[in-house]
Each structure stands twice: as C-alpha cells, then as structure tokens.
Amino acid sequence: MFSGLPALRSLILDHNNLANLSHVDIFEGIQSTNLSFLDLSYNDIRFISPDNTFVKIAPQVKHLNLQGNRLQLFLDSSSSIVQNQPTFISAFSNLETLILSNNNFSAFHGFHLASLTKLRVLDISCNPIEFLRKEAFTGLPQSLVDVDVSMCIVPPTPSPWIDWDAFETLPPVKILRLQSGSYKKWIFATMKFSPETAMSLEELYVDNNAISFLQTNTIPRMPNLRVLSMSKYE
C-alpha cells in the first residue's frame, strides 16, 4: 500500500477503525523507509503480532502513537511464559516516544520495553489499571525522561491500588505525571523513589488528586525538583 513512498517520514492513520493489521500488508515489498513518525491512534487495534509485516518499518520509527485503541497485552493471551516471549514493540529499537494511553491495560510490565534503549517518553495514562506494582517499572530503559501514569479516574470510581514499593523500580526520570487518581495526600506516601530517581526528578504532576491538606513531612525529599503541580481540575 505504501511501498511506493520510500521518502515518507510521517504516516498518520488515526480514527480509521483499523482493527487487524495482519489482514493488510501496508508495507508489502518495501526494502527501506525514512518513516520516523507513525500515528495509529484511535483505531480498534487489540493485538499486533510480532510476526506482522508491519514491523518491517519498526527500526526507523522514533515516535509511535497507539493511543485510544483496545490493546490489553503485548502478547497473545495464549502465551504461557510472558517474560521471555518476543513482542511487536521489541522491533522498534530506535523508538524515543511511545504513547499507549487510553487502551485496555489492566496491568503493565516494564520488562516488555527493556530493549527500547533510546526511549525517552512513555505515556500509559488513562488505562484501567487495577493495581500499580513495581513490575510496571521494572526493566524500563534507563534512557527514560518523561513517564505518565495518570489514572484519569472519575469519582465515584475507586482509585487503583498503588503498592507502597511501586516506585522503587522507577528509572531516574526527570518528569513524572500521576494525575486524576483521587488519591488525596497519601499519594506521596507511595513515592519511595530510589536515591537516583529522587535526585533526577525535576517536575512532578499530581493534579486532580483531591489533596486537601499537607503536613510538614508529607512530600518526600526531591532536591532538584523545579515544578510541583497539585492543582484541582473542575
């Protein structure tokens, strides 16, 4: 379909009701590509096989937007050993920005992204995550700068549980977003960062968490933090 466009740099296919990429070989016969920006947001994608010919163009892509699809797992639900299985995302070896917000992830495992050693921005916000555990961050690449795990909870929907050690495995990012969770002030009690992450954080966004009061020891020590946002959205 696009094999005759070798100079193509940006491909925007959002809002097209794409459901199964394995049924259409959109890069059939292509040998090389300059494509660096791929937007597949707001379609109906539920799973992408690592054998899909779509991954032919993966090594060149630096920005991948899969927002607003129906992804639940990187692996087929029939996979019994998830940690050692290849996934389609592993093919995007030069990826710098990955947007997975507004999908159907009830859990997230950072080790699926371990091979993305150039990844700088990760957005997994607004997914129906039930429990946020340290496995969500374990194995994430150390190159990460900006991570968004905002919950987008609308009361009276209960807030997803956050384990007390969930953030211990977070890489030393500079920007962390955990907005719209209705966590109140105890959200800070879960922020037991590693010493490296506590030093690296420069911006922290915990807006719309119904924070009504703070005590002197509520906020953990982050000596290089420059932006702290705790506003309440209406």
Give the topology, please.
Blueprint (H helix, E strand, L loop, with lengths): L9 E3 L24 E3 L23 E3 L31 E3 L21 E3 L7 E2 L13 E3 L12 E2 L12 E3 L17 H6 L2 E3 L21 E3 L5
Parallel strand pairs: 1-2, 2-3, 3-4, 4-5, 5-7, 6-8, 7-9, 9-10, 10-11
Keywords:
single chain, 234 residues, mainly beta, nine-stranded parallel sheet, two-stranded parallel ribbon, 13% strand, elongated
Describe the structure.
The structure is a single chain. With 234 residues, the protein is an all-beta fold. 3% of the residues lie in helices and 13% in strands. The chain has one helix and eleven strands, in the order βββββββββαββ. It has one helix at residues 195-200, and strands at 10-12, 37-39, 63-65, 97-99, 121-123, 131-132, 146-148, 161-162, 175-177, 203-205, 227-229. It has a nine-stranded parallel beta sheet, with no helix packed on it. The longest helix is centred in the last third of the chain and has 6 residues, at 195-200. It is elongated. The N and C termini lie far apart (45 Å).
Give a brief description.
The chain has one helix and eleven strands.
Q: What is the count of β-strands?
A: 11
Extract low-pLDDT stretches.
75-84
Q: Strand percentage, roughly?
A: 5-15%
The helical percent reads under 10%
What is the molecular shape?
elongated
What does the main sheet amount to? 9 strands, parallel
- Rg to the nearest angstrom? 19 Å
Task: Please report the number of helical segments.
Answer: 1
Q: Could you give the distance between the termini?
A: 45 Å
| Major sheet strand order | 1-2-3-4-5-7-9-10-11
Derived structural class:
mainly beta
Oligomer: single chain
Write down the secondary-structure element order. EEEEEEEEEHEE
Mean pLDDT: 86
